[in-house]
Write a structure and sequence with these properties.
elongated; 6-stranded mixed beta sheet; Rossmann fold; 339 residues; alpha/beta; 6-stranded parallel beta sheet
Length: 339
Amino acid sequence: MENVTIRMLAERLQLSTATISKALNNSHEISEETKQRVLALAAELNYVPNPYASSLRKKASNTIAVVIPEVADSFFAEAINGIESVAQEKGYHVLIYLTHESFQKEQAILRDFQSGRVDGVLISVTTETAAAQHGLEQLVKEIPIVFFDRVCEEITAAKITTDDATAAYKATTHLIAGGCRQPVMLSASRHLSISNKRTEGFRQALADHQLPFTAASIIYCSNDTIATHELLKKAIQKEHYDGIIATTEKLATAVYEAAAALHLQIPHDLQVIGFSNLSTAKFLNPSLTTITQPAFDMGKAAAALLFKALKSSSFALPEQQEVIPSTLLIRNSTLAAAD
């Protein structure tokens, strides 16, 4: 069924669109008789107001976009809650765009924003994103943008992150304290700064405890669940790892599955730490030790910055940086006691 518009109402009643709009908004400039005629026809035709129309005429959509890789990851689900807690207070709509870890999809989404569909963007980039070939640098000049969690370091823009290098260092040190001498880190990307920072912290912890960092110390995994499962089984059998740091929730689950397939007992044969905000981590068997990120606070902080920029054109948004610490939560998948 065709959507009924103000223009259609105007044509039927032989009135101007301005008169129709004012009547629908109960303006004192319009007579009661005309208001009743307009409202009666609107009810008859099931006219539904477009919440974006008036704001678009003012060159504002009262809408912000959140661009993320996926919603299955509990980090992003919590971050969205933080974002919406601010947006609702400001009377803004939130549109969620999923890239599914595809650089091409991300580019297509960002091109769509150049039409003025949204007033600002909050983005966590894909594992495939490389800033050098990205349209983000130009878009930052055209529309307020805040990066959160996964950022492009090369681009001058507002960024909300957590202490990824420090968190990885803590995780690695915890494994070593539990007796691990052959730990490995599972990474989702060779390009993302967040992955590189975690690798940096991991590598530094090994060096500080006189343990070698080799080509086998990092395993780069894909988004293919079956391929990752096979890769992990072969690597664990070949390298005899005694500790694993999984840098995403999916990878933490994959480790449990690989350990079960190889008949390895966690944590006695293989200790595991995951970067995860899963509320069910404590119910896994054994419960998963996690680096828990401040997802809600990061989303809330990113949205707060964006709305400051939307409120004041003089606000220096690209200069804003904030780092919110993560937390090591020790459970039963590792052996070392809490400090």
